[in-house]
Design brief:
Blueprint (H helix, E strand, L loop, with lengths): L3 H6 L1 H9 L7 H37 L5 H32 L20 E6 L12 H8 L2 E2 L1 H6 L6 E2 L1 H20 L4 E3 L4 E3 H7 L10 E2 L5 E3 L4 H5 L5 E4 L5 E10 L18 E11 L4 H19 L3 E5 L11 E9 L4 E10 L3 H6 L1 E5 L2 E4 L1 E9 H11 L7 E2 L5 H4 L3 E2 L7
Parallel strand pairs: 4-9, 8-14
Antiparallel strand pairs: 1-11, 2-3, 5-7, 6-7, 9-10, 10-16, 11-12, 12-13, 13-16, 14-15, 17-18
Helix pairs in contact: 3-4, 7-12
């Protein structure tokens, strides 16, 4: 969230910056709230001045033995009016904050202008699609043919956009989780965290999912618990309402969690396969930094996520998102997109973002900077999305006979060099 005082004093400047991302700031609504607040404050200040002056006059008259009952009644009326105005001011401030909570972050100056993914900028790429002397299949054919991916039973157990993994398919998912966590903790300097998979509303407000994106979430009935859409939410909120030691920053955390999303805004995208599921698994990277560290730490986090794909030998490209394609709270985002030969397209596998102080202000996460405290910057990104990495391995390492070579980096975790057709489940 934006700083209330700075935002209120610079509405036109914020409107101009937000226009870069295609957001129209409701200026008249903000100005009306501000005008009413200022009017209430002005009236309060005038009444307090009159109250002080008349109180002195009453005190003087009482010393002279004059009946001041009428003046005292007037003072009580002033006090009542000041109380009403104070409540009005508080209510207007609350309404301003509620509206402000729905306003996205402003793009960093290094973010290119644009309206959609077509305007994103490729900053680097790794690898090239492997030549195949056969027609590559998509994972939604490869997995079921091998007997390691089952959509029909998942639909029976739960419904659409769920999957069951069998045998080496399930083991490959588990291997990827362990491999990613091992690399990030042992080599990239992250501390592993296993957070709750349910959070309260305050946590979702802190990271920006509430109030604007409630329809994208799953809420538990008759409770204030929500299933997490990403580990970003519980891990970021571990330090909610805390003041961190600035000399110890940055903090770097890596967390495996399942993730749950309603996909309310997906509008039928990626309906086949496991690219866009209601439940999926992810290893998330989260950092808390000083403001002067944050963009270097964003680059470092992005490189850490890329390193997983390099080790797995998967071709990818890294895109700097344009102003119109960024997420709600982000000031700058890199999307890492992996090549999927079965679909002949690149697909996002990690989104790495610097939120600057946007989340920290919502969650009240500060750090001690000498004698003063200020808001930390938060950074996060997938390191990586497990299901999409699973898909990328099947599609990039498929062989003509339908088997899947196991990337060398995963063989110690999987105890297998190739995934072949398993016995059919009866």
């Amino acid at each position: 969230m934006h700083d209330l005082g700075t935002f209120r004093a610079n509405l036109d400047a914020y409107a101009e910056r937000l226009a870069r991302r295609g957001t129209t700031l409701p200026l008249e609504q903000f100005r009306d709230l501000d005008a009413r607040r200022r009017a209430a404050i002005t009236e309060t200040e005038k009444l307090r001045a009159q109250q002080n002056e008349q109180s002195r006059e009453v005190a003087k008259l009482r010393k002279e033995g004059v009946d001041t009952s009428a003046q005292q009644a007037a003072l009580r009326a002033m006090g009542d009016r000041i109380g009403e105005l104070s409540k009005q001011t508080d209510a207007l401030d609350s309404e301003f904050r509620e509206l402000l909570a729905t306003i996205p972050n402003t793009p960093h100056e290094s973010v290119p202008d644009g309206k959609s993914a077509d305007d994103n900028v490729e900053v680097r790429a790794f690898g090239a699609p492997r030549p195949m002397d056969f027609e590559p299949k998509s994972h939604w054919d490869l997995g079921p043919d091998l007997g390691i991916l089952d959509f029909e039973r998942a639909a029976k157990v739960t419904g659409a956009r769920f999957a069951v993994y069998w045998g080496l398919g399930a083991k490959l998912e588990r291997a990827l989780i362990n491999f990613m966590l091992d690399v990030h903790t042992a080599e990239h300097g992250y501390t592993e965290v296993l957070p709750p998979f349910m959070v309260n509303s305050a946590s979702l407000f802190g990271t920006g999912q509430l109030p604007k994106f409630a329809e994208d979430l799953f809420k538990l009935e008759n409770s204030d618990y929500w299933l997490i859409p990403t580990a970003e939410v519980p891990v970021t909120n571990l330090h909610r309402d805390e003041t961190l030691d600035g000399d110890e920053l940055p903090y770097r955390y890596a967390a495996y969690t399942p993730c749950f999303r309603s996909e309310a805004g997906s509008h039928g995208r990626d309906v086949r396969g496991i690219i866009r599921q209601h439940q999926f698994q992810k290893v998330e990277l989260v950092k808390f930094t000083r403001p002067d560290q944050s963009f270097a730490e964003l680059d470092g986090l992005t490189a850490d996520a890329e390193d997983i794909l390099r080790r797995l030998g998967l071709p990818f490209r890294t895109m700097l998102l344009c102003s119109g394609d960024m997420g709600f709270g982000s000031a700058k985002t890199y999307d890492i997109e992996v090549w999927l030969p079965g679909q002949q397209t690149f697909k996002e596998i990690s989104s790495c973002s610097n939120y600057e102080a946007f989340q920290a202000r919502r969650a009240n996460i500060r750090f001690k900077n000498g004698k003063k405290s200020e808001y930390a910057h938060t950074i996060n990104g997938s390191g990586l999305a497990i299901g999409r990495t699973w898909v990328a391995i099947l599609e990039n390492y498929q062989q003509a006979d339908g088997s899947i070579l196991v990337p060398e980096a995963l063989r110690p975790y999987l105890n297998a060099e190739v995934i072949t057709k398993r016995a059919e489940i009866k």
